[in-house]
Amino acid sequence: MAFKLDNIPNKQSSKSFDIDSLLKKEVNLFGPSFSDKKKEAFYIELKVLLEAGLTLKDALVLLVNEQKKEADKNLISNMVSELIEGKSFAETIKNQSVFSEYEYYSLKIGEETGTLQKISQELGEFYKRKNQQKRTITSALSYPVVVLFTAFLAIFFMLKFVVPMFADIFKQHKVELPWITKMILSLSDFFQAYYLVGLVLIATLFIVITLNKKKIWYKKFKASFVVRIPFIGEFVRKVKIAQFTQAITLLTNAKVPLLNGIQLTKKMIDYYPLQKALVQIEEDILIGKSLYESLQPHKVFDSKMISLVKVAEETNQNETIFQRLTDQYNQEIDYKSKMISATVEPFIILILGGIVAVILISMYLPMFKLSTVIG
User: Fold this and answer.
1) Could you give the C-alpha distances from 199 to 84, 191, 206, in angstroms and in order?
2) CB of 337 within 8 A of CB of 138?
3) Which member of 121, 208, 235, 290 has the lowest number of beta carbons within 10 Å of its beta carbon?
């Protein structure tokens, strides 16, 4: 049995609400926040309570009392009220904007098949892995970003204040300057004249990105740019493919048909190359091709993954194979994050340290001549 996903009301059109952006943000400034971390705790605790023999309503009432924020309490209280009115759990989830169609269909299947406890566990595991991936990315990139930002501030201070001070001293004593000093002084003059323009351009760029981040042309450009960055591009691709295999694993466990799983996953993962590939894969499956045949033409998928999918289809072990793929990709992501940290950090320090050293040397070289003149 397949679901007609085209009949699902489009929440984004009426409220400008983006499910993809919600899944990637821990804080929503324009509405009640129910982040991925909270979803992880929500589903895991729900599974434990159901396993202990509580009814769904009683389990949700207990979860209401555990919430610290009033918005979260109101969210779950609304779900309890709708359950009392006779609605299914899946319907209450669908009526709350912070939950996705992905969760709705998984829980719908869980209720219909009597496996709600298992689906809650799978959703908890899904968000646990997703949060682990976020922490891995943050751990891999946070230190290099901090070093880069600190070094940028140091260079800004030197070009804005230190170099002009030396320039005034050189002009007063009419010291003949080496070429490297002249180059740094010219750079400082240019910086003094146009740094405000640069700040305005950066602010403009930030605004343009904010206004266009949901548009196809921007997603395409962003993905094309990121994939060309050494180490980072491949790392991001692995993370997105891991999210894809996690989603398919969960939906397969929930007995969601493959075609519907592709449709739901396409809406969950905001990565243009993968979304583009899934559109074509959906069309190929509709005309009778296997998943293995549909994956082959797309470079975003590894040959290893395609081979294992072929084995899964031949042996009817989709659930096991996709779980294995998920575990393998998570291991690769952990390894690559450590490799990025070990490679990028010293590289950034070396480059920025070299820039600072050039500035200092260019300023101190004329000082030797100046000491001679004064002497």
Assistant:
1) 55, 11, 11
2) no
3) 208
Contact 283, 304 (CB under 8 A): no
* Whole-number pLDDT of residue 81: 92
pLDDT average, residue stretch 335-350: 76
DSSP 8-state secondary structure symbol assigned to residue 53: T
Q: What is the DSSP track for 221-276?
A: HHHHHHHTSTTHHHHHHHHHHHHHHHHHHHHHHTT--HHHHHHHHHHH---HHHHH
84 and 96 Cβ atoms separated by less than 8 Å: no
Dihedrals phi, psi of 304, to nearest 5 degrees: -60, -45
Query: What SS3 string covers 22-37?
Result: HHHCCCCCCCCCCCHH
Q: How far is CA 219 from CA 18, 38, 147, 181, 271, in A?
A: 14, 27, 28, 43, 7
What whole-number distance in Å separates Cα of residue 258 and Cα of residue 243?
Answer: 16
Long-range CB pairs of 282-290, under 8 A, 24+ apart, other chains included? 285/258, 285/259, 286/259
Q: What is the CA radius of gyration of the chain?
A: 27
Residue 247 burial by Cβ neighbours in a 10 Å radius (0-12, 13-18, 19+): buried
Structure tokens at 285: 């499956």
pLDDT value for 10: 41
Nearest Cα neighbor of 367 from 150, 181, 241 is 181
CA distances from 15 to 9, 267, 290 (A): 12, 17, 37
Amino acid at 115: T
Secondary structure letter of residue 160 according to DSSP: I
Residue the block writes with tokens 């074509």: 280
Residue with tokens 């591009």: 233
Cα–Cα distance measured from residue 185 to residue 182, given in angstroms and rounded to the nearest whole number: 5
- pLDDT, tens digit (0-9, with 9 covering 90-100), for 122-165: 888 878 877 877 777 777 667 777 777 777 787 777 777 777 77
Taking the C-alpha atoms of residue 93 and residue 100, their distance in angstroms, rounded to an integer, is: 8
For residue 370, the model assigns a pLDDT of 65
Residue 247 contacts residue 125 (beta carbons within 8 Å): no
